[in-house]
Design goal:
This protein has about 240 residues and is of the alpha/beta class. The protein has helices at about 5-10, 15-25, 75-80, 105-110, 125-130, 185-210, 225-235, and strands spanning about 40, 45-55, 85-90, 100, 115-120, 120-125, 135-140, 140, 150-155, 160, 165, 170-175, 180. The protein contains seven helices and 13 strands. The radius of gyration is 20 Å and the shape is elongated.
Length: about 240
């Protein structure tokens, strides 16, 4: 997959979703943090390129167990075609009353080099998915098979997930707080600014722990703040 170079990926691996939302807000983007989902197990950041699956409500004449044997089944097709370096993003319409996926499919995605799996619905087999190296994000556990509520209709089309528009190729960044969608065309500049902001916020945190007031420090309205920051940065190799 294209659109995410190693340098930018490394930067995204070391910034928080909180910082990213601020950087994006400065660019006029307010709705980029997926709502109502959480990570199954804490760990390092998740960074990858969006590869999408879209569900609509199930229909009884189409959604039966035999449908899984169809090579054109969009859920299975998406899993088997998901490329290395992707984050598998599932639009479940915010419905967690049936599973969006389970551990077998998640394990297959991990084997294909997927960097994570995200849904605004629920997963089944959550204790097992939580133990995978690949992170998973969902709304809540849901044991029933997807066929009871979800009909997979499209792979790698634009979707909505957690109330956020996600386009194939967007950069998906997740941490232990949640998931942010970064439009691909601004990924490099967002990663650069978020990295710089993280360095400054680390300086601010150290100053606050030492008893400094936030006035004039954060934001740095006191001219001496930036002088102290430059000195701190040099001393700490940042």
């Amino acid at each position: 997959m294209t659109g995410l170079n190693d340098q930018t990926k490394t930067k995204f691996m070391n910034v928080s979703t909180a910082t990213l939302t601020t950087v994006m807000f400065k660019r006029g983007l307010r709705n980029i943090f997926l709502q109502g989902i959480h990570r199954l197990r804490p760990g390092p950041n998740m960074v990858g390129i969006a590869y999408t699956l879209r569900y609509i409500p199930a229909r009884e004449d189409l959604d039966h167990l035999e449908s899984f044997a169809d090579p054109a089944n969009a859920q299975r097709k998406g899993v088997e075609e998901c490329p290395d370096g992707a984050v598998f993003m599932i639009d479940s319409r915010g419905d967690a009353s049936a599973a969006s996926a389970g551990c077998i499919l998640a394990t297959r995605l991990q084997a294909r080099g997927c960097r994570g799996i995200v849904t605004d619905g629920g997963f089944r087999d959550t204790p097992e998915i939580a133990q995978l190296e690949m992170p998973g994000y969902h709304a809540r556990p849901s044991a029933p098979t997807n066929l009871t509520k979800h009909h997979a209709v499209a792979v790698n089309d634009p979707i909505a997930c957690g109330g956020v528009s996600v386009f194939p190729g967007d950069i998906i960044v997740g941490d232990n707080e949640g998931v942010v969608c970064v439009p691909q065309h601004m990924a490099n500049e967002v990663a650069d600014e978020a990295t710089e902001m993280t360095v400054f916020e680390d300086f601010v945190m150290e100053m606050v722990k030492q008893g400094a007031s936030t006035f004039g420090l954060y934001p740095p309205t006191d001219p001496s703040t930036l002088d102290r920051f430059r000195s701190w940065r040099q001393e700490n190799g940042r």
